Every structure is written in structure tokens, then in C-alpha cells.
Amino acid sequence: MTEINKYETIITILKNLNNPKFASQYEQQLNRLPFFNFYKQVFKTDSFTQNAFKYIQLLYLKKGQVYKHQTDSIESVIILLEGTLSLIKNDQKKQKIITKIQPPDHLFQAEIYKKVAYSKYKIMALTDCTAISLSFISIHEISVYGFHFAKYKEEVEYFRIQFPNVKPIEFIPFIKKLKKEYFQNNVKIYTANQQANKVYFIISGEVEIYAENEDGKFQRVTIAYENDSFGEEALSTSIPRLYKYTAKTQYFKKTTAFVFEIDDYCHIYAPNLIKQLEDKMRFKENLIQQKIKQTSTLPTIINGSLKKPFQQFLPIVSPTSKASSIKINRTISLNDVRLLNFMELNNPDKNYLNRQLIIEQPDEQSNQSRDRTKSVEFQKLLNHKSDSQKLPQIKLY
User: Fold this and answer.
1) Within 13 Å, how many C-alpha atoms sit on residue 219's CB side?
2) Fewer C-beta within 10 Å: the chain N or C terminus?
3) pLDDT number for residue 375
């Protein structure tokens, strides 16, 4: 393929339409572009404009310049805007002009759907020419994307925002398999170790994510919000569900999500999209593991007692100090025996600080093995006057 003097994107042409001098010259030719009216609407968004830079170009040829030699590969449709092109065929070592192409004619439209296309003629500019080079890939993208745009508008817009680097043509086979599901508040979507075959994309609402800690209990590590996704581990058949997910909404609202059920071919028809989802899964996995390590320093219950003194986790110097305002934003209820129940502490006048933060349920075994140092007799001995006789030694068991 010979050298081409200059390229400009079709964006330049669209801008020139605002100029009356170029508008009348280009309007007729541009309307011959497949789905050109649709293209003019889509060009308003940056993500699709980036794809246009790759696939659609404005081509300039000088007089006598060869655009294609005979048997050169064909990858684009040429729409002539101005000038004259000649199609030349070699016949017994002689070159013969078969035909001339003038605006608004175009070349190679019949080769669009061929797997491999070659030029049957030598293409040379008889005069200075200007043409649009529209790649076959772009034509497929315009056709497929334009056809499905109206029917799947909500889905297309959603994934264009979430995955701006993925070609829109990949969305079509993907979004055709999407289903929309609704989840009431506090509904368990799935639990850990279940078979994973679906990926969820949140449209509205929230989803709480619970992970299993070192003690085998589930603790909330994060919340997935609108425009986020979860369940990407379904893309790998060797990984079961890693976490437990619960829908969380307010009042009568529901959590709404697009649901994609994994099939055997999703890595083929949407490779870039699937790869980004897999990368996102690994990134989220690292964040959640860090979150679990951070929350492992919080007080946990072992056999009715705290691993660490709870006082060190409260911003209070001593139980007797009364801060003007103490507020613990999150209500934490530990599983099973509800040993901890944090209340809002906003009013220092109501001596909330004297309340027991840990309420232990009675246990028969603990009553039988009660510490003798807490008996009434022992307390009387402690309160005895200092000038009394030496206290008898008490053997502790």
C-alpha cells in the first residue's frame, strides 16, 4: 500500500458541516455512510468518539498517486467526496482503465462481509481526491450497535459508563443475555461456598458484603453501591462463592440489578469485558482481605469474654469522665448471645457511662465454679478495720 499524504478523523468533517462552504459539499456524501444520522448522535459522547478515531479517517490523494495495487488487501470502504479515481487492470503487460469513480460513488462495499478481501484493480487518483476511509470493523460496529441501541438503550448506556475502554460491539451479545432482578431489603442473595454462575451489576440500592473471619463467623467488610458489580468469581469455574451478599435498601425500595448468567462462550464474544471483570474481582479480593485484617483488631468474644479489654477501643480516659458528646455511629450486634449492644450516647446527664456494656447471660457451670473471692464472707473481711487482727489466709481454688 502506497504512502498516504494526510489523515484526518471524521470528526473534522462533522465540524465542517457547521461551515456553509463545506456543508453542501459533504452532506450528500456523508449521508451515504451507514447509520450516519445515528453516528452524529453517538459522537456526542467521548467513549465512542475514541473508537471513531481508530476506524474512520479522511483520506487525501494527490494526482497520480496510487491508493491500491492489484491484489492488495482491502480493509476499508472508500467513499469519494471530491476528485476522480481510476480503476486500472493489467492486461497482457498493459494497463487498461476499466472505469472512473466520481462523487458520491464508493468502493469495496461488496467486500465488507468477506473474510479476506483483495483489490481486483489498481486504484489511482486522476485528480486531487478527498475520500472517507471507513474500516470494515467500524461498519460492523455501527450496524450492530445502531440496531440494538434503541432496544437495549438502558443496558448499553450502563456498560458504556462502567467500561469505557471496551468496544460497544462487545456489549451487544453480552447485554442480550442480561436479566433484571429485584431484591427486597435484607434478602440474602447468596451465601459463601455456593455454586457461582451469575454476575450482578447494581442499578439501584445497596448490597452488603460479608466475609468469614478467623473465628469462622461472617462480618461485614464493605458495601456495594449503585453502578458497582459483585459475584465476579462466577467467571472462574474453579472458584466457589467467596462471600455472602445481602440486599440492603431503605423503606419500601428494592435493590435492582442486571444479572448475567455465565455461559461457555462469554470469553469469546466479550473477551475484553470479561477480562476487566476478572481484574476487578482480583482487585476487590485484595481490598476485602485488607479489610478483614484491619477489623481483626476489634474486640471479639471468646467463651463469654473479650480477647482484649474493651476500654481501649472507646475514646474515654476513665469511666468517671463525662464527655460532652459521645456517639458511636454504628450499632454492632454480635451473633448468638448478643454480648455487645452499642447505644447512642449523646446525653451525659443520664449517666449512661455507668451502664454495663457487657451483659453476660447466666451459665450454670459458671455458677457452680464461682470465685470464692467474690463471696459475702470475703467482702466482710476486706472491709474490716485496719486495727483488726490479721485476716486468716483463704485458700483459693
Assistant:
1) 21
2) C
3) 52
Q: Tell me the whole-structure pTM to 2 decimals.
A: 0.42
Which of 222, 208, 344, 232 has its CA nearest to residue 294?
222
Three state DSSP letters for 36-68: HHHHHHHCCCHHHHHHHHHHEEEEEECCCCEEE
| DSSP three-state, residue 10 | helix
Residue 124: count other Cβ atoms within 10 Å of its Cβ: 22
Helices and strands per DSSP (H, E), number in the chain? 11, 19
Q: Cα–Cα–Cα angle for 80, 82, 87, nearest 5°?
A: 55
Whole-angstrom Cα distance, residue 13 to residue 89? 32
Instruction: Dump pLDDT digits (tens) for 337-381.
Output: 333 333 333 334 444 444 444 334 444 444 444 444 455 555 555
Cell numbers 468474644 correspond to what residue?
301
Q: Residue 294 corresponds to which cell in the numbers above? A: 484491619
Cα pseudo-dihedral 178, 179, 183, 187, rounded to 10: -70
**What's domain 6-144's superfamily in CATH?**
Jelly Rolls (2.60.120.10)
Lowest-pLDDT range, 59-63, 151-155, 250-254?
Answer: 250-254
Q: Which SS3 state, helix, strand or coil, does residue 298 take?
A: coil
Reported as a single tens digit per residue, the pLDDT across 320-334 is 333 333 333 333 333
Residue ranges per structural domain of the chain = 6-144, 152-295, 304-383
| Rounded distance between C-alpha atoms, residue 65 and residue 129, angstroms | 10
Cβ(129)–Cβ(82) under 8 Å?
yes
Q: Which CATH architecture has domain 152-295?
A: Sandwich (2.60)
Per-residue pLDDT tens digits for 91-111: 777 888 888 988 767 787 666
Q: Which residues contact 93 (CB under 8 A, 6 or more apart)?
A: none
Burial-class residue 46 by CB neighbours within 10 Å (0-12, 13-18, 19+): exposed
Q: Any idea which of 20-24, 199-203, 315-319, 367-371 has the lowest mean pLDDT? A: 315-319
Cell, residue 143: 450496524
CA 89 and chain centroid, separation: 53
- Write out the three cell numbers for 69: 495495487
